[in-house]
What does this fold into?
Amino acid sequence: MTTTHVPVLAGELIEMLDPQPGQVAVDCTFGGGGHARLIAGRLGPGGTLIGIDRDPLAQERFEELAAELACATRFLRAGFAEGLAVLREERLNADLVYLDLGMSSMQVDTRQRGFSYSYDAPLDMRMDPGQELTAKDIVNGWDARRLARLLRELGEERYAGPIARAVVARRERQELVSTSELVDVIKSAVPAPARFAAGHPAKRAFQALRIAVNDELGQLERGLPLAWECLRPGGRLAAISFHSLEDRRVKRFLADRAQGCVCPPELPVCVCGHEPEAELLRRGIVATPGEVAANPRASSARMRVARKLGESS
Ligand SMILES: C[S@@+](CC[C@H](N)C(=O)[O-])C[C@H]1O[C@@H](n2cnc3c(N)ncnc32)[C@H](O)[C@@H]1O
It folds into this structure.
């Protein structure tokens, strides 16, 4: 398996984080290390790169990269919410923390991991193969209402109800064990014209399952405040999202930190004394048409970046 992951918005990430020699950077989603290689190159021998990822494949890639780097390195194999909690306990004062959410090309292209509707594989989708919950557990274990809600809320799937009912009807005859079986059930539940309308008919259901299996939104909700706490004043946080469920959370989190006075508008003077903690450095950065043409994954990417305000900023 030789797939490499082409990092998205790489130039923009470097420009916005502006890594300097001697700094400490935390890559919360190391993946294939594309972003980390570029960042670490700027940190020099006095700097430190900390990588986090829950995939053992990413750990292998980290070890290969670390052998080439001049800076100090450290890897935490964990969900980034847990990895950042460890760093916060250690009172890390990072200069840069960044997240590039979702799955890597290596994960999608390792067929047996079941992330893709294009390959026949076990219904798995775990980023951490040591985790218990798999896509098969959800598909065969959740009742129709819960499945439909999952497809609607995490996949924005228009045919969530019919698909959920079709899954339940099918598994009453026989357990679903493979991605192809699931794709067939989804196709059977979606009206013919819609099967060809907005991309592959299983695309949204697979996204929903992957997000649920890996608790991606929970990780983000817990991870963002910890990432913020690990940053020194003047440090920068960047997050690259690939769908609106993630981007909305990042946007709200940073907007809350950038807000000053929270007094009711009818008060003539501020009594809350609330000071902004963040400066938003450009809003919603998206890929150029050239990048999207070269790397279609970049089409849905959106990056948000903020600087932490405070004494040394
Ligand atoms: C889009 S890829 C990152 C690619 C990387 N920036 C690069 O340039 O190669 C996302 C990676 O983050 C990891 N990941 C996603 N969510 C995670 C989480 N909550 N905790 C830890 N790792 C996570 C995945 O396992 C995957 O390797």
The mean pLDDT is 94. Residues 5, 7, 29, 31-35, 52-55, 58, 79-80, 100, 102-104, 127, 219 surround S-adenosylmethionine (CB under 6 Å).
